[in-house]
Design brief:
The protein has 116 residues and is of the alpha+beta class. It has 3 helices and 3 strands; from the N terminus they run H-H-E-E-H-E. InterPro entries: Cation_efflux_CTD, Cation_efflux_CTD_sf, CDF_Transporter.
Length: 116
């Protein structure tokens, strides 16, 4: 009987340890954000008048207050580099203050596009 109880307790400890490890590993590897967070970041970026489009948005959650992301935005190629940089720099800072996500924005210059 003692052997059976010992095996049962061992299995409970192994099961609990596995679940704790699984949750910890998910946080360390970076979890995908919620759909609500993705939509919030996309709409925040797209409301800027100079942004023509966005793609390749990636956000990883590494625990409370540790979300890191990157995104490509399309700006007109006629914008001066300094102006384009100031636009994305402001968006990065605004996203950080509004959502807590530390995001890096890559600029893709595009030719003249008419928004519909």
């Amino acid at each position: 009987m003692d052997g059976f109880v010992g095996v049962l307790v061992s299995l409970i400890i192994i099961y609990t340890g596995f679940n704790i490890s699984k949750d910890t590993v998910n946080i360390l590897l970076g979890q995908s954000p919620s759909e609500e967070t993705v939509e919030k970041v996309c709409s925040f970026i797209q409301k800027n008048e100079y942004i023509i489009g966005i793609h390749d948005l990636r956000i990883h959650d590494y625990g409370p207050g540790r979300s890191i992301g990157s995104v490509h935005v399309e700006l007109l190629d006629s914008l001066e580099l300094v102006h384009a940089h100031s636009i994305v720099d402001k968006i990065e800072k605004d996203i950080m203050s509004q959502t807590g996500i530390d995001i890096v924005i890559h600029v893709d210059p595009v030719g003249k596009v008419s928004k519909i």
